[in-house]
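Lab notebook, bench 4. The sequencing result for the construct came back, and we need a structural model before the next group meeting so we can plan mutations. Quick request posted to the team channel:

Model the 3D structure of this chain.
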Amino acid sequence: MKYAFFSVLVFWAGIVCGFAAPVPVEDLPLVPAPKEIQSSGKSSFKMPPTVTIAAPKALGSEAAILKRILKKRLNVTASPAAGTRGTITLSVSRRIKNREGYELKISRNGISVSGGSPAGVYYGVRTLEQLFITQKKNLPELKIVDEPRFAYRGLMLDPARNFLPAEDVKHFIETMAAHKLNTLHFHLSDDQGWRVEIKNPKYKKLMSVGAQKNKPAGTRGYYTQKEIRDIVKFAAKHHVEVVPEIDMPGHNMGAISAYPELTCEYVRRVNDDPALLRQFPKMEIEIWSKAGVSEALLCAGKKSTYAFFDDVLGELCALFPSKRFHLGGDEAPAKCWDHCKDCQAFMKKEGLKNTQELMAYFFQRNFDALAKAGKTALYWYELDVPNYPKNAVMYSWRMGHTQQAIDRALNEGYKVICCPGEYAYFDYPQVPGEPNHGWMPLTTLKRAYEFDPGYGRPEKQQHSILGCEGTLWAEHLNSLDKIYEKAFPRALALVEAGWTPMSRRDWENFKRRAAPLVRDMRKNGVPAYWPKDDFGIEK
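Done. Here's the predicted structure in token form:
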């Protein structure tokens, strides 16, 4: 029996199932809101000081996480059950068709969590943890049947702009996973730095030069390959996919500062020619310590540029097991290609009419290189690129352009991930008076909650939409605490947009459910922002 939202939200029970009484949802801090919930309201389960957990070997990681949660939240000691039934029983069920779906049952005799896969069991365990926040050891008898609306629910970290140590990345991963966000988009290169070790000795200056600004004191400024493997392994335990991004052809001063030959000869010519400097701004070949976008692009007219990325992407594809790899592609002003002798000669040779067609060629060339490694390329969608590679995935990010991106996806066979600036750019200020750095629009918690990744379209038009993502561009976020303050509670609004059917969503009720979670975060060392106009005075 599905529940419906009213001004006071109540979950009504299904008589057939033997459930008869309502459970006020304001007493249950569940975000995202489950698809279905039922309760008899007649009994409860009181957690004893020691419990047993029954779980097959394949769910050993989920059982270990549950054991840790029980100790941390309730000071309850858990041990493995001797048989197939315990105080709490974890299982995978073929009956649950969605791999991230789960069923959570609480009765006077115990608790069971079953999932369509270990990921589903993990999310059921995390729902149980949310119940502990307000219910403590006295849990209401209930049954939750739940599954996500969209398969992709992500957040983007940007250590390229301001480096974030590996342990901070892992802390962030577990925090997002606990709220059913399942993808970390890992932005590893930009004008402000190159952040991942490449072992090929030809490219050692990527680390010695490209990683040496915009980093905390005492850190090396890049992730070693060992650290990347550790981050990926940790994320997998929490059912988070790590999708790397190496931006190209723009946003690349981290690499160009180390190897100036990667950019167009025009860029170097402008800097050395007084006549050209009267027509064009000087393009410093150095790592940026400011916000903004360099106009220096990778040269698309030289074979050495493609060789560089073949080598680098080859190493990185081996580090990240994800089948997805983001290649950037945004904010690449083609001025240097327009005036580059190498690019113009290459265009003439390949029969390309303009730099937009050269951009499409550049994308296709690197898409094909990834495909050989079994990866699918992802791009920031730009309206002026005439052709993207077939089977690529587009990130719709520019404010007001997502509907066009979805239309194009439907017509040309692309898939789309929605991260529109008007709803999902979480580096933007969230309350009036917060710094906007001269241009950022206001994105309140309510505005974030209004996001519908399906854009109200019929179900048959939503098959091209993989899901949604919130971005945390870090030009002005130089610590994990600042990232958390920007991410939460807006990331709670995002995950409800990606998980919960639109018919089950309600702003007023969301505030009541989210407030205890944010209070709990702040109590446990995650400095989420407290929007007093939405949640009231913090108690």
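Residues 360 and 388 are 6 Å apart (CA to CA).
Will bring this to the meeting.
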